[in-house]
Amino acid sequence: MKTLYSIRLLTFLVSISLHASQANDASAERLRVGYPSPSANFYPLFATKEANLFEKYGFEPEMIYIQGVQLIAVHVAGQLDFSSVSGLVFLQASVEGSDLILLASSNDSQPMKLMVHSGISGPRDLKGKTVAVTRFGSLTDLLLRPVLKNWGLEPQKDVKLLQIGRLPDMVVAIAQKKVDGGVISFPNSLQAEKMGVKTLLDFADSGLDIPSTTVVASRKYANAHREVVLRFLKAYVEGTRRLLTDKELGIRALRKYGGVNDRELLTTTYDLFTTRYTKKVPKINPKAVETALNLLAEGNPKAKGRKAEEFMDTSFMDELETTGFIKSVWP
Fold first, then answer.
1. How large a percentage of the chain has pLDDT more than 70?
2. What three-state secondary structure class fits 106?
3. What is the CATH number of the domain that holds 200?
4. Better pLDDT: 206 or 221
5. Residue 65 covered by a domain
6. Do 256 and 173 share a domain, yes or no?
7. Residue 270 domain-assigned?
């Protein structure tokens, strides 16, 4: 009799547990989060997901990789809730009329390089040559065009620009001299150096503050779902702390979402991004947004005279600070 009672009790407890689990799954809010590249630029997002912090704040996250500027089109079409994307790419779309708004910014530097093969010794050697970008309108493209103009080289006239979608493919193309150069982000730039490709310009040393790792949502979504945005940013802030304080988690996140398996490369990338690029608190720097707009204005008249405040909403991060949340994460 005791055995039968124990079996019934165990069955009852298991049933309760299953119903509770199903209820929790049902209560978790589906969240579609986009990112445009497996680059370490998006390290904070990768670490947040790897640490299960979206789940902590009641989300069932779906990480969606959509290459380059196509991400913006998908987001504008309402197929994403949040995106982590370069500030230049987001602003390019917003000055054209998209509804996207900047919510947070993790990095105001550009960890990208214009890299060339051994036959190129300086900017003058690029005349009549071919330089690769990932996609026209992408960050690689938007960074390259004003640089070429400053060197007195007209894009697509003096220097041919060629689209090569994936950064690893671009590295190989330069090393094999199928193209003469390309704009490459870390950690692919480190791999390029190992293959004999050299740096012609390091954008991080340009002295320009430009938001390169941002969180954006549509203005309509942010206004209608303020509590969701706050929870998302809480997870993101905690994820940034985990990234900066937990090396093994950071390496694991980049291995999974960055597609990098080389331990030395992973360690070097982690050390560089956590000491040089990633901010402890992803607050928006209005001056960096203004600089990005000025850079865009060199090639897009619609960006001229626009104000940084038009494209950002600091109220969410401000609320996390005034309510003491930021201090609770970073005592």
1. 92
2. strand
3. 3.40.190.10
4. 221
5. yes
6. no
7. yes
Per residue in 278-323, pLDDT (tens digit) is 999 999 999 999 989 988 887 789 999 999 999 999 999 999 999 9
Q: Report residue 102: phi and psi, to 5°.
A: -80, 130
**Domain of 31?**
27-109+210-329
Say yes or no: 100 and 249 in one domain. yes
Q: Give domain status of residue 165, yes or no.
A: yes
Kindly state whether residues 74 and 217 are assigned to the same domain. Answer: yes
Residue type, 159: V
Q: Provide the pLDDT confidence category of residue 189 given band limits of 50, 70 and 90.
A: confident
Distance of CA 19 to the CA centre of its chain: 38
Q: Amino acid identity of 278?
A: T
Same domain, yes or no: 233 and 184: no
Relative to beta strand 82-85, strand 130-133 is unpaired
99-143 pLDDT, tens digit per residue, is 999 999 999 988 889 999 999 999 999 999 999 998 887 778 888
Positive/negative CA dihedral, 285, 84, 299, 203:
positive
Asked whether 213 and 86 are in contact (CB, 8 A), the reply is yes
pLDDT digits (tens, 9 = 90+) for 10-48: 343 334 343 444 434 447 799 999 999 888 889 999 999
Q: What is the pTM of this model?
A: 0.79
The 8-class DSSP code of residue 301 comes to: G
Alpha-helical (H) ranges within the chain are 2-27, 43-50, 53-56, 70-76, 87-95, 139-150, 167-175, 188-194, 219-224, 226-245, 247-258, 263-272, 286-297, 315-322, 325-329
Q: Which two tokens mark 71? A: 């991400």
Say if residue 96 is in the same domain as residue 225.
Answer: yes
Instruction: List, as one string, the DSSP characters of 57-71.
Output: TTEEEEEEE--TTHH
C-alpha span between 246 and 76 (Å, rounded) = 34
Helix 247-258 and helix 226-245, axial crossing angle in degrees, nearest 10? 110
Bridge-based pairing of strands 82-85 and 213-218 is antiparallel
